[in-house]
Design goal:
This protein is of the alpha+beta class. The chain has 4 helices and 7 strands. A 5-stranded mixed sheet has the order 4-5-1-7-6. Strand 4 and strand 5 form a beta hairpin. The chain is globular.
Length: 109
């Protein structure tokens, strides 16, 4: 069971959790094929948190991070967001700190 917490960017309306859920559902591969989830993998969205429940050893946590980063690149928000591991089975989307520092420098000039 893996979780991706999108509450911070979803709260600021720059991240669409429903579209992210659809992307994960369409792109996740089981036995080398997409659209082959069956009873092995289930994807559920609870507010701004996406939960992916799998059978033991079906997919790796790293694969969930890979798909999340791929979605961020696709929606062009990867410049502002990053994927951070918060537990052994969970990730969280956080804002990049370098963009905040760049904005402060531009305001001072």
């Amino acid at each position: 069971k893996y979780t991706v917490d999108c509450s911070k960017p979803a709260g600021d309306s720059i991240f669409d959790t429903a579209a992210f859920e659809k992307f994960i559902h369409d792109r996740i591969k089981v036995d080398g094929r997409t659209n082959n989830l069956g009873n092995v993998i289930s994807i559920a969205r609870n507010g701004a948190t996406l939960t992916i429940t799998t059978a033991q050893g079906t997919i790796a946590k790293r694969y969930v991070k890979y798909l999340t980063k791929k979605y961020l690149k696709k929606t062009i928000v990867s410049e502002w967001l990053r994927v951070v591991a918060v537990s052994k089975t969970g990730y969280e989307l956080r804002y990049r700190l370098n963009n905040i520092a760049d904005d402060d420098e531009e305001d001072e000039e």
